Structure to design on (510 residues):
């Protein structure tokens, strides 16, 4: 289980997160929606301390970290419990697809090399890249790179996988293959928090949808409820803008 | 220069100068090795913004980049024994070669620290974030992800520096070091064929430079093999390919244009 309590984050005087509470149960898929600048990516990056929250508490599994003065070790352990899939893929450029997936296993979890390689091959086959094991990221398309990114996250066997707009940097025709992979692993009961702009995807794959605006959670609920009958005015406006058919089919 | 040009002297001196390559390369090698250590040490405070040390390394870098290497050689060779005499250390018996290596090491260290800083800064920030997200510590992320990529980026600059140092070592003759240039001054005193000596000297420097250039190009190719052709097109090192394409394209255009 992941529990965030009163997470705050300021850049200088600008308060980006104004005390966020969020609980994600084991096996749950939570989608975070919201306009740009609403702080959703910052929130996600606070969970593995790529962004330093100014205040609050993060709890993943048995690990509980007070955000004000965390020790280096706490940060390190926190990162060990989560994995992230980045908007810009961020694959290790100088390593092949298989090495990218192995890296965390070998370096961080100290898994023997052959075993890590075996696991890496399995996972790459699972995301449909069994034929690209020894390709460098520069030789892969965006969609393929992102699928390697997902395999890399899966390899760590984390408590939660954090997806930071996993399809935003992709060409439209490549979005489908990545979403298909995420859909597949969502069914396996892996806990996931997904920041996304793909409304249909969020509605279909998430157990719960959280709508954020201006650094606060405005509304959250089951996808069907939230999309069909949002309670808050701001949510309604946002959803209307994001689903153009509703606007043009008057 | 009262003698007429005689090509046989060029060959003669070329062969006679060859053994002195050893001394020149010793200066280059030692100063690069020491300079690499200094460069890394000096780059660290600036990369990690360590308050006081950062200022020191700035001053050091701007001094060695802002003064001619010849003056630096003189300062070390003549100045340092005097300074050390004040604290009762006698270095008058230390061979000049050590002073030369020391001066060149500090000189290259200054330039290297800047290129190390630049190369590390040029590694995509996302790479570090990914390393952290995977669970690596700061040292692991630096050693396994940042450094290998920074090395690839730094190689072209490093190659330039090595070749520059190679040529700069010719100034060591002014302190009486018998390296290539020093020897080329004394070889022709009997025959007075100075021009031929300089010609073979130039040839030797040129050949070593070309060899180094080829070597570094191969190393760069090896270190950056992960960058597909797509990415590498944008790089200065493979600008050649791009130029060729541009050039042949233009030629074809002209040919077509010539037809009525």
């Amino acid at each position: 289980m992941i529990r965030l309590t009163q997470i705050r984050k300021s850049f200088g005087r600008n308060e980006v997160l104004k005390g966020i509470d969020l609980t994600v149960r084991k096996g749950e898929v939570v989608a975070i929606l919201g306009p740009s600048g609403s702080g959703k990516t910052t929130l996600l990056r606070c969970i593995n301390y790529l962004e330093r929250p100014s205040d609050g508490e993060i709890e993943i599994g048995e690990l509980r970290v007070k955000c004000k003065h965390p020790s280096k070790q706490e940060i390190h352990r926190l990162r060990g419990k989560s994995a992230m899939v980045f908007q810009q893929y961020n694959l290790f450029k100088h390593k092949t697809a298989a090495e990218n997936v192995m890296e965390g296993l070998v370096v961080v979890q100290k898994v023997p090399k052959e075993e890590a390689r075996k696991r890496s091959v399995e996972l790459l086959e699972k995301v449909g890249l069994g034929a690209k094991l020894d390709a460098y990221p520069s030789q892969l398309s965006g969609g393929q790179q992102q699928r390697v990114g997902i395999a890399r996250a899966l390899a760590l066997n984390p408590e939660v996988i954090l997806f930071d707009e996993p399809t935003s940097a992709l060409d439209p025709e490549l979005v489908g293959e990545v979403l298909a992979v995420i859909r597949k692993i969502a069914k396996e009961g892996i806990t996931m928090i997904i920041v996304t702009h793909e409304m249909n995807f969020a509605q279909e794959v998430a157990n719960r949808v959280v709508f954020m605006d201006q650094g606060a959670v405005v509304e959250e609920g089951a996808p069907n409820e939230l999309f069909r009958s949002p309670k808050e005015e701001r949510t309604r406006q946002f959803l209307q803008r994001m689903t153009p058919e509703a606007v043009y089919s008057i | 220069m009262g003698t007429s040009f005689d090509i046989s002297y060029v060959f003669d001196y070329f062969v006679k100068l060859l053994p002195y390559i050893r001394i020149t390369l010793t200066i280059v090698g030692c100063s690069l090795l020491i300079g690499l250590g200094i460069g890394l040490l000096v780059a660290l405070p600036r990369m990690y913004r360590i308050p006081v040390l950062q200022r020191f390394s700035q001053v050091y870098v701007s001094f060695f980049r802002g003064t001619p290497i010849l003056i630096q050689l003189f300062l070390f060779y003549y100045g340092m024994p005097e300074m050390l005499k004040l604290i009762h250390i006698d270095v008058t018996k230390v061979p000049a070669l050590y002073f030369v290596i020391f001066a060149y090491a500090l000189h290259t260290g200054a330039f290297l620290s800047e290129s190390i800083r630049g190369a590390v800064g040029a590694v995509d920030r996302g790479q570090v974030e990914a390393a952290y997200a995977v669970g690596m510590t700061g040292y692991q992320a630096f050693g396994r992800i940042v450094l290998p990529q920074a090395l690839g980026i730094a190689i072209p600059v490093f190659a330039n520096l090595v070749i520059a140092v190679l040529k700069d070592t010719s100034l060591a003759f002014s302190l009486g070091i018998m390296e290539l240039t020093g020897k080329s001054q004394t070889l022709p005193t009997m025959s007075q064929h100075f021009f031929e000596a300089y010609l073979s000297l130039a040839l030797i420097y040129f050949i070593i430079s070309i060899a180094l250039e080829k070597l570094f190009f191969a190393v760069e190719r090896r270190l950056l093999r992960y960058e597909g052709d797509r990415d590498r097109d944008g790089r200065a090192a493979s600008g050649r390919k791009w130029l060729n394409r541009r050039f042949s394209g233009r030629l074809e255009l002209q040919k077509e244009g010539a037809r009525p």
Q: What stands out?
A: Chain B touches chain A through 24 residues (CB under 8 Å). Chain B has a mean pLDDT of 84.
